[in-house]
Write a structure and sequence with these properties.
Helices cover 3% and strands 22% of the residues. By secondary structure, the protein is mostly beta strands. The strands form five sheets. It has a seven-stranded antiparallel sheet with strand order 9-16-10-13-14-15-17, with no helix packed on it. The chain has a four-stranded antiparallel sheet with strand order 7-6-5-8, with no helix packed on it. Strands 1-2 form a two-stranded antiparallel ribbon. The C terminus is likely disordered.
Amino acid sequence: MIMKKYKPTSPGRRDGSVIDYRSELSPLAKKSPHKPLTGKMRSTGGRNSQGRITNWYRGAGNKRAYRHIDNKYEKHNIPAKLESIEYDPNRSGFIALVCYADGERRYVLVPKEMKVGDVFEVGENVKVKTGNRMPLGKIPTGTKIYNLELKPRAGSRLARSAGNYAEVVAHDSGYTQVRLPSSEIRKIISTAWASVGEVSNSAHRLVSIGKAGRARHMGLRPKTRGSARNAVDHPHGGGESRSPRGHRRSRTKQGRPTGKGQKTRAPKKYSNKFIVSRRKPGKIMGGKR
């Protein structure tokens, strides 16, 4: 992975960096995606179906075309060949346009170390190699996996971000213990499916945006610190000048605990019984390592 840093011709350029996509993406990839597999994508501005903001500090940004990604991999025992590796503005990992042996084309999340011309297959008795997809019960311990399902045939849910992967730890009584990217060890039914390998574009976490204007193009708006607000607007607000937050634990705007290694998971969540080992807060979870 090649990182490109700009010369400090201006204060905004001084610390900015980007990924050299020319060295990573397929030279055959067109500027526009495969049209039959794209659709319109409207910006929500962080609002839910009721029009209320649930994800703050989002809005504007460049218009994007949505790529329909195959997360279910329903075509079994049909070899698929990678035709091109492309950039997707809606996710951090790269995607690949694949052509199955029957002529159908689909977009899939491409794993690291796979290149144009490589072939993968989906099936219960396929080989354990990068890109192949099979049930968790057929994957040996210690194997890196991505595009992981929580329920059989429900589509991939876990380990889909750039550079992420989960690891098979053990098999026991119809369940497979998997170490997730958050360091949590979780039991998942062994008939759920997963792909072998790790997601591409591992250098995504090393990119420095560099200037505010670049963030605005990405649809990210300026964020105001809670301590800089009024008391009616945030639990950390109010006070004279720079004041302490006034209570022991940091909170969100809605008053829920956040950050500083606090536990935010619901104590009676239905899936608590599947967790073998809780995630360990710290540098392992998200952010730049």
